[in-house]
Amino acid sequence: MDHMNGKQFREMLESGCNNLNNHKKEVDALNVFPVPDGDTGTNMSLTFSNGVTEVRKAGSEALPIVAKTLSRGLLMGARGNSGVITSQIFRGFYQAVGDQTELDAASFSAAMKNGSKMAYKAVMRPVEGTILTVVRESCDAADQYVQEHPESTMKDYMDALCEAADASLSKTPDLLPILKEAKVVDSGGCGLLRIFEGFRAYLHGTPVSESEAGVAVERQAEENGYQVEFILKLSEHGANKFRESRFRDSLRGLGDHATVMIREDTVKVRVNTLKPGDALNYGQRYGEFEKLQISPLSQTLPESILEEKTNPKDLAEYGIITVCAGEGLEKLFREYRADAIVSGGQTMNPSTEDFVQAIKSVQARHIFILPNNSNIIMAAKQAREVTEDKDIIVLETKSIPQGLSACIVFNPQESCENNTAAMMEAIRGVRTGQITYAIKDTSVDGTEIHEGDYMGIFDKDIVLTSRNMLDAAKQLIDRMVDENSEIVTLIQGKDASDADTEELQKYIEASHEVDVDVEKGGQPVYSFIIGVE
Fold first, then answer.
1. What is the pLDDT of residue 428?
2. Which CATH number fits domain 3-216: 3.40.50.300, 1.25.40.340, 3.30.470.10, 1.20.1050.10?
3. 3-class DSSP state for residue 259?
4. Were 528 and a residue from 61, 127, 277, 435 both cysteine, which residue would form a disulfide, CB within 3.0 to 4.6 Å?
């Protein structure tokens, strides 16, 4: 193939997407930290699948439209840092395509190089030994090959790209010591290579098909299912038994891309599902529908009934959006003035679209977003970029305790500048600890870790292990608390009992001169989250 048109590009994208989907568990397993949250492959798979789904729904075979639709779909579906970087690669690709209706090897190479540059620009402090290195080195090497071989076909180019990406990936442990110690290559770079390999398979006449039943079901829901939206007025009985976390989890069991927004006794819901009746029947348990709309996903969707037309005069001055998982944490953040909760965290990174929907639900001039996880910050920032009518301030909170502290110091009577400064100061004053368990044997920063060990994580580092959860928690707290510490916030997770929490509280009070605030977070994965101020 000397030239590639829009139809061929679409088909190649399908093959790349399928190959990534089929290998997402392999990519997940490459995560360095042995915690039960390996999600790079899942994030990249969901991101790329969203882009390809949008291309399918658009139905166009014009190359500029396919490239633009892919870019938009990836941008809105981007999850985690790896997903955001992937979206930026193909955003740069789209910009370089422009109005070209066909690409030869040289023009395709130029577009990919532009994508590599765009990805680097999107990261404030690029780290070598990551997906960024793999995309840069592979695109540069493949471009050099094309320049040295002007007669190159698209197949020749993709062969060179995959060979260079594979070589670059194999060297990532030499650039990042933590990868070498854990005996893995970079997970994001591996995910990108799987996409490229899917492209290559298509060009060689053997396009990759989906091999996982779950992926096939997901595609069926996206192509043949329905988007269900409703506004529900809670009845008195429904309000008494309504639990936001349980409600959201139940909707996720019925379909994909579930969004739940709550304001007083009104619940707004959007979910993609194969069985719209099941979603409606579930919602009706809690009250009566004020508005209802069901739209086939295979068609252009009508305007959402959930988006309010608000007079600018009616806007509040401030709004807060925060990310968390766990019924107790959701309740706690709402008590601390959060207007919208984006469900997610370390095991389930929300997408750019999730933040966009949350922004639309908050009727305020200035909106603070608290990602509460370093792997979510980039998606929040992308949502800020695509929002035009509101002032969005993304505070780079990297943990739940940082997010809670930021909420506590927020003052609705202060200026936006003063609030930003006060919240940032509060964030800097928080140290975070977490207790979780290891899912594999490995070594991280000189610490030998065995499957089943409980690990104490201090800020970003695994600092200790123990076969006993409470022993690990006590050791971690002793490391975190010093003579300047005043408050310890102890957040109980789903896997910790009340007795465990009570014993740990007594230990802190007996061992350290600090105030102890105990909260039931109900968070998954982490038995305890600990904040020290």
1. 95
2. 1.25.40.340
3. strand
4. 435
CA-to-CA distance for 345 and 371, rounded, in angstroms? 8
Q: Do the bridges between strand 316-324 and strand 340-343 make them parallel or antiparallel, or are there none, so unpaired?
A: parallel
Using 70 as the pLDDT threshold, list the residues of the chain that sit under it.
36-38, 212-224, 298-301, 307-314, 346-347
Contacts of residues 272-276 at CB distance under 8 Å and 24 or more positions apart, as own/partner, are: 272/221, 272/222, 272/225, 272/226, 272/227, 272/228, 272/297, 273/221, 273/225, 273/226, 273/228, 274/220, 274/221, 274/224, 274/225, 274/226, 276/226, 276/228
Q: Residue 109 belongs to what H/E stretch?
A: helix 105-122
CATH 3.30.70.1150 fits 226-296, yes or no: yes
pLDDT digit string, tens, across residues 182-233: 889 999 999 999 999 999 999 999 999 987 534 443 444 445 678 898 999 9
pLDDT value at position 91? 97
CA distances from 439 to 52, 90, 450 (A): 32, 34, 8
Topology given in CATH for the domain delimited by 309-429: Rossmann fold (3.40.50)
Cα distance between residue 71 and residue 65, in whole Å: 10
Q: Give the pLDDT confidence score for residue 310 in this predicted structure.
A: 55
Residue 218: predicted pLDDT? 47
CB 381 within 8 A of CB 366: no
Domain ranges of the chain: 3-216, 226-296, 309-429, 432-532
The alpha-helical segments, DSSP class H, found in 149-212 are 154-170, 172-175, 177-182, 187-203
pLDDT recorded at residue 38:
58
Strand, helix or coil for residue 263: strand
pTM: 0.84
In which residue are the tokens 């991280």 written?
Answer: 444
Question: With b meaning 16 or more CB within 10 Å and e meaning fewer, what string describes 288-298?
Answer: eeeeebebebe
In whole angstroms, give the CA distance from residue 232 to residue 305. Answer: 12
The amino acid occupying position 110 is: A
The pLDDT value given to residue 219: 47
- Residue 310 sits at φ, ψ, to 5 deg, of -105, 135
Long-range contacts of 141-150 (CB under 8 A, 24+ apart): 141/167, 141/168, 142/109, 142/112, 143/109, 143/110, 143/112, 143/113, 146/105, 146/106, 146/109, 147/106, 150/106
What is the layout of strands, in order, in the sheet containing 316-324?
340-343, 316-324, 364-370, 391-394
CA 454 to the chain's CA centroid:
25
Q: At what angle do helices 469-480 and 498-511 cross, to 10 degrees?
A: 30
Taking residue 99's Cβ as centre, other Cβ atoms within 10 Å add up to 7
CA distances 435 to 453, 455, 458, 464, Å, are 10, 6, 9, 10
Q: How many CB atoms lie within 10 A of CB 410?
A: 20
d(CA 110, CA 285) in angstroms, rounded, equals 55
Tell me what pLDDT residue 415 has.
96
pLDDT of amino acid 221 = 43
